[in-house]
Design brief:
Layout lengths: L1 H11 L36 E12 L2 E6 L2 E7 L2 E2 L14 H11 L5 E5 L11 E7 L6 H7 L4 E2 L9 H14 L3 H4 L10
Parallel strand pairs: 3-6
Antiparallel strand pairs: 1-2, 1-5, 2-3, 4-7, 5-6
Helix pairs in contact: 3-4
Length: 193
């Protein structure tokens, strides 16, 4: 409910919800950029932007807690999967702690972020499903996690706007032996889901 209310406030706050987020290359990469806006239109449909979100904490490599206008929300990064590091009654998977630490490095507590929705707003655990961008520099965090070798691809249709980008980033990280693709060669947890 808070997400829907925040989405309805976006146009009223003077933000242009039809404007495409500015893609930003990561420092130290090849400088390539790509479209970062999911297809769709309208203030509450695919591509909707939730304004005024601030990272409270990183839960693990693909989940965080944010504050949206005073409401605490759990957010699941769409399209990627990182090794488990905090799943109850489960062992920490290979590179799970490193993936969590990298997410926390990209999104320190207090970081302003822009959450962009795809087709579905929430998953079965009531987490907001989003493409996450740092507000200050436009870094596409989901893609950075894949590019840097901390995540595999996990696609749940109909939320597929960036699947091809994630697949390409993971293939590149894997062929370059970055992150979990080097550390977990015999135990690849993200490929088993």
């Amino acid at each position: 409910m808070a997400i829907a209310a925040a989405l309805l406030l976006v146009p009223a706050c003077g933000l242009d919800s039809s404007a495409e987020p500015t893609p930003t290359a990561r420092p130290g990469t090849d400088g390539a950029t790509s479209s970062t806006r999911p297809a769709g239109s309208g203030p509450t449909g695919p591509g909707s932007v939730v304004a005024n979100a601030t990272v409270e904490r990183v839960v693990d490599g693909d989940t965080l807690v944010v504050d949206i206008d005073g409401s605490r929300e759990r957010v699941r990064l769409i399209g990627i999967d990182t090794p488990e590091s905090v799943k109850p009654n489960s062992p920490v998977e290979c590179f799970g702690k490193e993936a969590s630490a990298h997410a926390a490095e990209l999104l320190p507590d207090g970081t302003p972020v822009r959450l962009v929705l795809d087709v579905e707003e929430r998953d079965r655990y009531d987490r907001v499903l989003a493409y996450v961008y740092r507000a200050d520099d436009g870094l596409f965090v989901n893609l950075a996690m894949a590019t840097d070798g901390y995540a595999g691809v996990l696609t749940y249709p109909p939320n597929v706007a960036h699947t091809d980008q994630f697949r390409a980033a993971v293939a590149d990280a894997r062929s370059a032996g970055r992150g979990l693709w080097a550390a977990c060669a015999s135990d690849l947890p993200v490929e088993s889901r």
